[in-house]
Protein 1
Amino acid sequence: MDNKSNQAVGDDSNGLETLEENPTQVENAANSSAAPAPASEPTVHAAPGTTPPQPPRLPFKEKWRRFAERFNLYLIIFIFVIVLAAGIAVVAYLNSNKSPTTNVSTQTLDQKALEQLANTDTNVGSSSQVLKVQSNAIFAGKVLVRDTLEVAGGLQIGGNLSLAGVTVSGSSSFGQVQVTKNLAVLGDSALQGQLTVQKGLSVNGNGVINGSLSAAQITTSALQLNGDLTLTHHISAGGPNPSRTNGSALGSGGTSTVNGSDTSGSISINTGNGPGAGCFITVNFANKFNATPHVLITPVGSAAATVEYYVNRSTSNFSVCTANAPAANSSFGYDYFILD
């Protein structure tokens, strides 16, 4: 048995010597064009009870060449690029749909912290934090809000409110509003209570008053009444005093005067020597009428009653005349009232 073992070992050693003497045998077999696949290492059968010999290690280039023959390198690179691009697209889509969340931290202020805020100028937190005051707060000084002020509940102001501009989109109720400058209302306005205007009131359009109108003085360029006119006091006709021109019926040395306006007034006549028939005076209106007005003449005194007087009128003047010769060196007068 020992001889057989030694013989097997000798045979094995001869095989190993053969592999060592021909190290390129395996490589030549792999590169041979006759073999379709790389040659495999020779199989060495170890004798029973002995350690089988290890095959020789192939060089790195040979290993890489065999790996490249089994797989297409460009195909692997293409698949890797596709997978990488798909992963980047998925990550970008998830990040775009993710809504940013802000974690707002809260902090409770004790009595000591509140006293510190009252006595010092301290910045509390940052713009991303929220300060909640559960109890009532009283600010002895001014409060400055640099951004928008939002009030969820009612707003009560005990003192005056000064605003650069007010925009009210809904309905509002004001107990008393004082406007020191101009008030412009673009839409319709309804006043349920009494309207008091301390200074002038200017209305460019039409004004409709369903109730009574009470005014200490009304100045208007034109007044149209569709109903009756009721006057409970005197009528004073104002305006500039008209001019006058003496007529030939005054005689030598006679004079005349007029005192009043274009609406009403008085005429005084003083005849001289040798008065005759004709006109005593011509009154020229300060403002012409649009049409020939109605002139009403009333004699003043008994001397005027004996004169057979008449009136000539036009849009610019009227004249008081007589059909007979009046008494010489006499004085009398007439009142006039004119309507358009």
Note: The chain has six helices and eight strands.
Protein 2
Amino acid sequence: MTLCVLLLSIGCHSAPQRVPNAASPSFDARFTGSTLRVDYAHCGTSQQEAIALLGYRAEGEWAGSRTQLVDRSDTGKYRFRMFDKASGSELYSRGFASIYGEWETTAAAKQGWGSFQECQRFPEPRSSVFLALEKRAADGRFAEFWRTELDPQSRFVDRSPIPALGEVIALRENGPSAKQVDLLIVADGYTAQQRDKFVDDAKRLSDILLATQPFARHAQRFSVRCLFVPTPESGISNPRKNIWKDSAFGLSFNAFDSDRYVLTYEDQILRNAAAQAPYDALILLFNERKYGGGGIYNLWATVASDTEPAPYVFVHEFGHSFAGLADEYYSSQVAYEEFNPAGVEPWEPNATALLDPKNLKWKDLVDSTTPIPTPWNQTLYDQVDLAYQKQRAEAIAQQASEERNEELMREIKAQTAVLLATEPHRGKVGAFQGSMYEAKALYRPEVDCIMFSRNPTNFCKVCERALERTILTYTE
């Protein structure tokens, strides 16, 4: 096995390879029933991209579906695929997004190289395979930009025992992992003395998630477990306030210099610890009073446990990480400079550039009497919301207390809730201008949704359908 590095010049994608899907042999004939993980560094600039292979790791039993192996959702900025070496048939695939995929849209990516740990987990094949990474081009099609061969029996697969770290705690067990959505909630910033607090936080927030539609309809399809790894100090790092903590998994505020965005760049450490339990989805719950979090499709979500809006954030961020839902708001400060290029249809299921209004991606949910685009009083909403954003920026600059920040959030919630409740097309599916950090170029399905504001306790119909489809992918 050699180190594989391949540079990709943006805009120079080759034509997508047409590879037939596997005929339909039984899972056991193709796979061992265990999990393999490939670790790699995803690095580059805004104009070129590289993959450096770091290694392979054997994990435990495969927790994913044993029938829904090839991704049909067409969701994600990237796609991981596995092909049988002998026949060329596709054995497994998953769309995903990544920290790198977000970082490359920032000003920092125009100034120099960045490097981020990533991994892909897949059912262990019985024979040699090709692993490939593809990236979505402007026309929406995927193009392969990295490929390597893997002999699963080779000495290059690390098969040492998964080290015991912390404690795995079951909150909800509903059946075999292969037929469940296995959700693993990982602690960071909780001391040994705060173990019970973490369990209580995880149960409280996961119960709220599973009481929200469409999760409530499918609650019996979810198993929920916790991984508690104690840390010497309570909380996580906050660079803007010169607070630095030695947390278990490296979570920190200020990702991409965005005050409330929380990520970790220590993916291998996280994955080695998480491998102690079966999981399809990860939520990293960190012990903080400060509002913050994040969510990236098929990576993981992060959520602060002790803020007033924690229940909302838990559900919102899981929407990102589980089903690839887009942020539908457009006025908050973000580091991205061109998250979705002009004139390109977003891959996210709940956002559109409305390039072809007659073929709106969710047109089957639109009533014949609803105009496209759908009018709403965006001017008045923006006046109220932009005034709040100014106050919020001032509060961040002054390092205001969390109580003051939450007071501002309550004020804007009360004002915008009244405005959105009186919209003539409220509750109807259409195409409402303003979404994905763009006030004019992109559109969302409904005037309000969990992915748009902190006001509602429900997803719009388009988001709900995308979430339900994802649930069924793991459980049928």
Note: Residues 1-24 have pLDDT under 50 and may be disordered.
